[in-house]
Every structure is written in C-alpha cells, then in structure tokens.
Design goal:
Elements: H1 18-33, H2 44-49, E1 66-74, H3 78-89, E2 95-98, H4 107-110, H5 122-125, H6 129-132, H7 143-156, E3 163-164, E4 169-175, E5 180-185, E6 190-198, E7 220-223, H8 229-232, E8 249-253, H9 257-269, E9 272-277, E10 283-284, H10 293-300, H11 305-317, H12 326-329, H13 337-349, H14 354-379, H15 383-388, E11 401-402, H16 406-409, E12 415-419, E13 427-428, E14 432-435, E15 438-441, E16 444-447, H17 459-463, E17 466-468, H18 475-479, E18 498-500, H19 512-530, E19 540-542, H20 544-555, H21 558-566, H22 593-605, E20 611-613
Parallel strand pairs: 1-2, 1-6, 2-3, 4-17, 6-18, 7-16, 8-9, 8-16, 9-12, 10-11
Antiparallel strand pairs: 4-5, 5-6, 13-14, 14-15, 19-20
Catalytic activity: gamma-lactone-2-keto[5.5.5.5]fenestrane + NADPH + O2 + H(+) = penifulvin A + NADP(+) + H2O
EC number: 1.14.13.-
Organism: Penicillium patulum
C-alpha cells in the first residue's frame, strides 16, 4: 500500500537513458568513497556519550553472583528472550540471562528516540504473539508497543527471575577440563555454565563519527540510541511534545533509518532544524493503521498462524511459487524488493543466461529507483531540495526506509537540508557544525549515525566481550584473517557448546524475528538433546568437514555480491565502501532462510549430523 507504483521491467520513457543513470551512480559513489575512512577505534565522543551507564541507565551496584548453570544467555533482546522461552518449552529452567541494559528489549530498549517504530508487519515481527494471545494495535508497531510486548513475554514465562540487568559481560572462557564456560562481568560475577548462548544483537553499540572539534562543542549532544529526554522534553511514547525544543535550534547528523524516523518529530517541535546529509536514503511511503478484529481474526484463527505467516512473507520475498489469497499478500505490501525478486525468479524459470540476467536485473533496478526518485519530486515542494534528497544508487545498496512524513518535513520553513555533497560535515565549533565551509549554529546536536553492525566488525568492538575458545584463541583472532567459520552460523569449531545468534552465515530475510525463531528452535533442541537423561556426551562442536562445507556454501555467489557491493556508495552494507576488505564468509546463507532452517532440521533429525560429541 505504499505510494510507489508497480515495477515495470524496463525504465519509463521519461527516465534518463540507462547509461546516464549508471554514470550518475558512479559519480555519486566516487565522491563519497574519497571521503570515507573506516575507523574501528573508539572516539572521544564514544567514551563520553555512549557508555552503558549513560543518560538512560541508573547507577547499579550488587553483590557478585557465583553460580553454575546449565545455560547462560548473553543478551536480553528478542533473540535472548525467545531462546529462553524455547528452553523452557524443552523443560530447561536452569539458565541465566545477562543483560547490559537497565531493561530487556535489545534494540528497542536502546532506541527510544521519538518516532521509533518497526517497518515490518507487527503480526510477524513481534515474537510469540500466538503464545501470549496478544494482537498488535497497529500494523507497524511503535517502539513503545514493542517494549510493552517484551514485558508481557517476561511476565508470562516468569523470566524476571532469570535476568541480571545492568550487567556487562567482560570475558568468557572455555575450560576443557571441566567442560564448562567461565563467564566474567563488570560486577565481579563468576558464573560457569555448560552452554553459552551469544544473543548479543545487532543495533546497540553506537557508531559515533570521528569529527574534528567534537570536544569543543558547548551545546548538548547525544546519539539517537541514547536519547536524552531531559534535554528535549517529551517521552518515548510520543504522548507529549518535546517542549524544551521550542526555543532551540537542533542539528541531526545522519539520514539513515534512525534519522528518517526522528526528523518528522523534531520538525514539529524544534524552533529550527538542520538535517546534515551525506547520502540520502531511498524513501518509500508505508501505510500504517489500527488493526481491527475484522482484519486480524481471519489471520489468527488457525494454530501455528504466526509461523505460517512468517514463512509466507519469506516465500514472497524469495519469489517462490506459492498460491496466496489477497489477504495473505498483505504481509509483504510495500516491499519493493518483492518486484526485483520476481524479476529474478522469472529469469530463472525462463533459463535466461547469467550474462543476460545481470543486464535485465539492472534495468528493473533502475526502474524501481526512478519511481522512488519520482516520489521525492512529487512530495518535496522546493525543486533544489528535492534533487538533493534523491538517491542515486542501486536499490539495496542502503537499507530501504519506509516513512510517510520524512520528505514532507522539508516543506516546513523551519527545516533546512544541509546536503554535504557526499563529504559529510567538516568539523564542530563551540557553537555548531561546519559543513560546505559554512558554520551552522545549533543548541543541540543529535547523531543519528547508526551502530557497529556485525558484518566485518570485530566481536569485541560490538560487544566489549572477549570470547576465548578451547585453545585460548579469541573469537576475533579466529576470524581475523579469512572471516567467520561456522556451521549454520550457530556452531563454531574450537568453541564447544557455544551457540551464536546473528545474521552471519545464517538464513536472513527482512524480518529478523524469523531468523531468531529458527535459531532459537535449533539451539533449544540441541541443548535439550545434550541434557536428556542418559545422554552419553556433554559437549558438542562442528566437525571440520561439516563446518568447511557450510562455509563453502556461504561463499557461493560471493563474486556477484562483491560486484554489486562495489557499485554502492559507502555504508555498513559494504564495509563503508571497501567490500573487498570483507571476506565472503561474512555473508548471509545464500540459499535463503527456508533452506537454512531445513538444513538445521535435517541435522537434528539425523542425530545431530555434522556435530562432534564427547
């Protein structure tokens, strides 16, 4: 139900010639590439504004915990909580959840900025709806609704007694003599466990840019993932205006998914708003509405409805043959990627030669992006501003963003786009931000600059946790040269009884909750089998052959993915403009989430095939 028109297979007659568009793509990429220097070191801003004990974290002291458990789960986000529920379903109650935040919720705990919302249909994104009996209020849930559902899950399964909040794990180490993991924390805890689950999440460790002069700025500044309502007024639910901004000039650096959601609310409440842009996002409208019983009852009647709906969504995006009614189809409405997937599927069915497939796909991609650029022109009144807001790159180079009010915010006289022509801001002064050689005075500066994403980023950098395996080697050292080696993206050789949840080498779709479900199912069944009465083994790890085969499968098609990434402007999808520096092993499982889930089910059905046991 988005405003983007259906995708034709060739560009409209009104489009620029294809060669002109591709040349424009290259020009825009090159100007950003020259100014993009990845930096894995923590900045002064990071130390000052992104600590866990930050503006939204109370001080907390407690006595050290010394205990042995069957399972320790690191992370109380959706992945950690769903895994805990699945463990309970297996009859396993001896587990601890270590969460660095004041509350559980992961991404949704940290990202409490105004306007925070999910752009995946709530019926498939909010986990355990069928089990809790909860029906979402909106088609796309707000952050507040998601956090309330997290609390509902914790209450229903009595997970509160398992959770240790405000606890940063500092190191974990496998003790081969005891077949136990040793876990250390910032509270001097000493925990041991048979199984260690890393559910450390994707979007929680702020990525703060190294901007000269940041320490000189005299105004308030914070990252969007550490929003300070004491400075802005208002609340995470958006129930009251940010009244403290009525007399303030605000600057936002970053126009990715977070920035796009934040800007409309700031535009309403701030006296003046500057939006500093390096690269525009591709913006698609998204219909959100209140869910009525008339809409939801036909969906939720059959047992297993939520899992089935997740599968329907992934089948549509993977363009498989699947008979669907119009009601089923609403699960993926607005997903422009669906059009491109169908183009690919059609070419496969027609046995189009690989050389021709690239050409036809590129034409379809250009057509879609022309529709998105036309949407900008139709929404933004000022022609010059509209031109600067148009994305000039292939569709999936950057995360697509679905938001109705972002583009129209620039029709307000109080909102000004500061496009940096791909260069980013130059520096900060005591009074504000210098961009394009001009100082823009601001009272408040907000960094909507994203997070340290998993792909290509050292585990310690993202989590502040050292993970030592059976030979004393850290996980980062093991993956340093060639990238990750795993089985299913979950099991890691030389790290026995370690179970990892993340996108790397796993099946991934736009709905990451589906990935969490499949991973948690596998993890809980594997642990359950190991803990059965009479089990003859206490530890597992993937065999050399099984892990090598899985890595080889992950690397398949890497050359095509690399070529695509090299055509994109810098961003976290392509290693900030250096995709050749990221080994192919960091990729997702290329055969899709259904094939990934089937491979794990086959492993379990065949007596944990591919796993060594002792």
């Amino acid at each position: 139900m988005g405003s983007i028109s259906p995708l034709p297979l060739t560009p409209d007659a009104s489009c620029c010639p294809r060669e002109v568009i591709l040349e424009k793509y290259q020009q825009e990429r090159k100007k950003r590439q020259l100014n993009c220097v990845p930096d894995n070191e923590a900045t002064e801003l990071h130390h000052k504004y992104a600590p866990v004990q930050g503006v939204d974290q109370p001080s907390y002291t407690r006595s050290p915990i010394i205990t042995d458990s069957k399972v320790v789960i690191i992370g109380g986000g959706l992945a950690g909580l769903v895994t805990a529920v699945k463990l309970k379903t297996q009859g396993i109650n001896d587990f601890v959840i270590l969460e660095k935040g004041a509350e559980c919720g992961g991404t949704w705990h940290w990202n409490q900025y105004p306007g925070a919302a999910c752009d995946i249909e709530s019926l498939i994104y909010l986990p355990l709806l069928e089990e809790t009996g909860y029906v979402p209020q909106s088609r796309y849930s707000s952050g507040a609704e998601i956090r309330a559902h997290v609390a509902r899950i914790i209450l229903k399964w009595n997970l509160g007694e398992h959770i240790c909040p405000l606890t940063q794990v500092t190191s974990t180490k496998w003790d081969e003599s005891k077949l136990r993991w040793e876990v250390q924390t910032d509270h001097s805890d000493s925990l041991t466990c048979q199984f260690l689950v890393l559910a450390t999440g994707l979007f929680h460790e702020p990525n703060l840019p190294r901007i000269p002069g940041s320490e000189r700025f005299k105004g308030d500044q914070f990252h969007s993932g550490r929003w300070d309502y004491a400075v802005t007024g208002g609340d995470p639910a958006g129930s009251v205006p940010m009244d403290k901004l009525a007399t303030k000039t605000v600057g936002v650096i970053g126009t990715g998914a977070s920035g796009v959601q934040i800007v409309p609310r700031l535009a309403q409440d701030a006296k003046k708003l500057y939006v500093f842009q390096r690269t525009p996002s591709s913006i698609t409208a998204r219909d959100n509405y209140t869910m009525t019983p008339l809409m939801t009852e036909p969906v939720i009647q059959k047992p297993g409805w939520q899992r089935a709906r997740m599968v329907q969504f992934c089948e549509m995006l993977e363009a498989e043959e699947h008979e669907m009614s119009d009601k089923d189809g609403t699960v993926a409405e607005g997903f422009d990627a669906l059009s491109l997937r169908k183009v690919l599927n059609g070419m496969r069915k027609d046995d189009v030669a690989p050389a021709q497939m690239g050409e036809l796909y590129a034409r379809a991609d250009i057509s879609l992006m022309e529709s998105i650029r036309k949407h900008v022109s139709n929404t933004v009144d000022d022609h010059e501003t509209a031109e600067k807001l148009k994305p000039w790159y292939p569709f999936l180079c950057k995360r697509p963003v679905f938001q109705n009010d972002y583009l129209s915010s620039f029709n307000r006289s109080t909102v000004e786009l500061v496009d940096t022509n791909g260069q980013g801001v130059s520096c900060l002064t005591e009074k504000g931000v210098v961009a394009n050689g001009k100082e823009h005075e601001v009272d408040l500066l907000i960094y909507a600059t994203g997070f340290d994403y998993e792909i290509g980023t050292p585990f310690y950098q993202r989590t502040r946790i050292h993970v030592f395996g059976s030979h004393g080697q850290t996980l980062d050292d093991a993956w340093a040269d060639q990238g990750p080696s795993t089985l299913f993206g979950i099991h890691i050789r030389d790290f026995p009884n370690l179970l990892y949840i993340g996108p790397c080498q796993a099946g991934v779709t736009f709905n990451f909750t589906h990935t969490i479900y499949e991973a948690a199912d596998h993890i809980s069944h594997v642990i359950g089998d190991c803990l059965k009465d009479g089990a003859s083994f206490q530890a597992i790890q993937p065999s050399i052959e099984a892990q090598s085969d899985w890595v080889k499968q992950t690397e398949e098609g890497s050359e095509m993915r690399l070529q695509y990434a090299q055509s994109c402007p810098p961003g976290y999808f392509n290693g900030h403009g250096r995709p050749e520096k990221i080994p192919a092993r960091w990729g997702y499982y290329p055969k899709g989430i259904k094939a990934w889930a089937n491979a794990m089910r086959e492993c379990r059905a065949e007596g944990m095939k591919g796993l060594e046991r002792w």
